[in-house]
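User: Hi! I'm working on a homework problem where we have to compare a predicted structure to a textbook description. Could you give me the structure for the chain below?
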Amino acid sequence: MQTTVLGLTKTNYGTNIQQGMVGSQPTENDNLDKIDAAIAALQQGERDKLEIEAAAGAVGIVEGLSVITAGAAIALTLAAPTPGGPGIGDDGKHLSFLSTTAFAHTVTTPANKINGSKLTATFAAAVDSNIEFIAYNGVWYVQNTPQGVTLT
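Assistant: Happy to help. Predicted structure tokens:
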């Protein structure tokens, strides 16, 4: 007897197959491939979130890309990420900021929520200033080297 749930198939009781097919039974590797593909699709969906920042205010996403398009310098506020892994918190989520305008924008978090000791990211008055954060244990950590962004 086979049970199919979300595209995964359980082999008959007592049948333990890793590779190949036994009759019409899929292998454990087939299910692992389906799980990997589902995880990748979910992660890509989160990374595809996009928010346009045309005016000062709170950043409404914790993962994806925030594009700053304001025609004057604006102040954005970014909440601290929620500690905990998937289903509990924001650990591992990536959030990028990109300025498409030449103004000294700021992104401010609660105290010590950037790299554990900073709270403000100030963008240079230049197009393409950018920074990427990764959330871990309630703090935004800078990933890679920011371009035209100073932390204080």
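For your comparison, note the following. Residues 1-5 have pLDDT under 50 and may be disordered. The domain at 49-151 is CATH 2.60.120 (Jelly Rolls). Good luck with the assignment!
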